[in-house]
């Protein structure tokens, strides 16, 4: 039960993303308070707890058992998402979990069932749903201003093996995969948000740079439920940073990029729909946490449900399977005969 002083949150995992959650809580001081931080690295837990004025733990079970929590934010390596979420549900705690929901479909199902049985709110942090420019783009496309969506493309590049990344990102057992599961799930979510339809089938290919145990490159052709086809490219070797989506519609097109914002192109005229905003990711994390707090307090459904997140995971897993088999794969993981 949420107290009158706001949602009392414990954070499990004290890395870079956890810092964004703590900053978000500061923006929502009347609604959310971080009261405990846990990390197996005591120094990391102590540093983040000092910023939040919170208690320190190195064992999440000890933190749960100590009481004084309404909810937990889980920001740990992917393979630990399932066991810690199950422990939180058993402790009666609401859960905001970083994406991806899990590394295996069956684990995601278990997590959803456990939280439902415990009567706790379960939200998954597909934070792009809260980014102001992306919300503006989705609203513009949904308005029909440039007609129905026909095709789409999504391209992201980064240095996936950058030394600043946590080493578990490159561990297939702990990460569950590479750039597809970590970066590609953002891209899948973004395409579904902008196209306005879920992905149902995937044809894909993955590759890894020499000496790296997880994939660093991936390309795919996605089929959405409404018939739209989209291309997806996530690459982690050599290219400068890019984050750009293009949605081609019956009467024009929309381009969304991290550096230029949202532009509409229609009849030879370019119009800026939304300018890039400084600090918009900080605002997105705050909006996500506010939505989670509202859902916990009201017993309502969060904007990003675990069922939706399971579909995003399913698309990523279908891409992996297609890369192995060379065929078209349904998001549920079932290979199909029809052509893309």
TrEMBL record:
It comes from Thermocatellispora tengchongensis. Residues 7-126 form the Gfo/Idh/MocA-like oxidoreductase N-terminal domain. One of its GO terms (molecular function) is nucleotide binding. This is Putative dehydrogenase. Residues 135-254 form the GFO/IDH/MocA-like oxidoreductase domain. It holds the Pfam family GFO_IDH_MocA. It comes from the Bacteria.
